[in-house]
Write a structure and sequence with these properties.
Blueprint (H helix, E strand, L loop, with lengths): L1 H17 L3 H12 L4 H9 L7 H35 L2 H5 L17 H15 L3 E2 L5 E3 H4 L18 E2 L14 E3 L4 H10 L4 E10 L11 E11 L4 H16 L5 E8 L2 E12 L6 E12 L1 H6 L8 E8 H9 L12 H7 L4
Parallel strand pairs: 1-5
Antiparallel strand pairs: 2-4, 3-4, 5-6, 6-10, 7-8, 8-9, 9-10
Length: about 350
Amino acid sequence: MQQQLEILEKSFLEEIKAVSKKEEIEAIRIKYFGRKGLVPSLLEKIGQMPREQRPEWGKKLNELKSRLLEALQEREKEVLAESSAFLSSGFASFSFFDPTLPGRPIQSGTLHPISIALKKIFEIFKRIGFTLEEGPEIESEYNNFDALNIPLGHPARNEQDTFYLKEKVVLKDNSPGKLLLRPQTSPVQVRVMKNKKPPIRMIAPGRCYRRDEIDATHSIVFYQLEGLVVDKGISLADLKGTLEYFFRELLGSQLQFRFRPHYFPFTEPSFEVDGAVHSVEGKAVKWLELCGCGMVHPKVFLNVGIDPEIYSGFAFGFGIERYLMVAHKVPDLRLFTENDIRFLKHLSPSF
């Protein structure tokens, strides 16, 4: 038995000294320590020895097993270190480089589908005299709610509707109230009406935030575009005509859409505009909300210093992702933020 142990140890050390790959280390581990390996075979032989000799040889074999495993682990560390040094030296890539292979094509990127949609929307509104306005994503409670006829205690003021900031940030207009991430782009309309005299004809695109449950048609971050027209003699007919022109230019002259009475605290009367979304089979039709709109509430005009007895106006707003869902029959809004290259290529032909 002693001779067998010595032969086993000698052959093991010679074999691990010759290995240079991790796969070879694993092969030796299986050969000597696997279920049917050399070491377990010797353990079985000890069970066949006389009872009084078993403890002595069992102890020697276990000590040998510990030495061999330790040597195997040390050699494995050495092999990994040698492999890492070889790769970091740069010789590995040079050694396996094949100059006869064709070059890899360099793909040129393109604009995100949302950016493409915004560009198209800007062009349509530009044709009918609208200007482009922007505002900060961090806003005050006053510009978000009070100025828009949403007093304290109104359900829209619930902290669950948006994200409030604990840090103190000083806004340029020094508007009062706690600071928050805007849940809509309506504060841009407030800022414009405070600083510009009518007539006003503007659109305000931007990113918005709400504490919504994320599903196929809702997200905590989304893009919105709002529009505002203020002038003398503006009526509901102007609102309806503007939106019909815009959506048919955007989504096609055959677009099916409808106006439904609704409630918004900053407009009176208020409406929602729905667009028809067809199923993949083209049979079932689902009405998806495209736009909220209405005539500007007189209290909003008073809050920004515009006389509602002289001026009237209308406002509207919609989500950019909602428009893309209708235009391209996209079933899930989350696809626009998951960065799936297949989806982006599909909506951006020049990708």
